[in-house]
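Task: sequence in, structure out. Protein: MurR/RpiR family transcriptional regulator.
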Amino acid sequence: MQQNIVLSIQDRLQQLPKSERKIAEYILKNTETVISMNAQELAKQAGSSPAAIIRFCHSMDVNGFTELKLLLSANLGQMKQQMYTEVTKGESTADIKQKLQARFVHVVERSGQTLEDVAVNEAVDLLEKTEVIFVYGLGASSLVAQDIYQKFTRLGRTVFTTLDHHLFASMLGSTEKPSVFIVISNSG
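Result:
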């Protein structure tokens, strides 16, 4: 069984055929409701067919609709535990710590579940072979860009970062050496 079926659905959503994408979108919006449905009900609500439900399950590497519902149910329990809300004024230190910890754990688990080893290895190979690394982050993401700059510079790599996007565009346009451009985004 898969660890996180919702992440799998989100990751594969754009590659699915239209009939299966309708099902996926309905499941993502109505996870709790889908758990108590049968295949015919889901097909009707999603504007698809029972046969498309079976194809969707196979696309998700799931043996059938019953297994899909079990995975969704297990995932829903995990999601409820991992849900976090924004820190608000007047909260206790203990509540703030708990929210920040839940957010950190969620991000680390999601990264571990969605990062593919092949993609990570390809990125590492690319970074090893390139001569110049450009790192850009806007707003709070610029702090991460500066951290990457500092870490790679300590490794002896040629790295450029700046908050000025006009200057950054000029630097990118004028480099003649093999280079990599890394964009950091906290919000996706």
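The chain has a mean pLDDT of 87.
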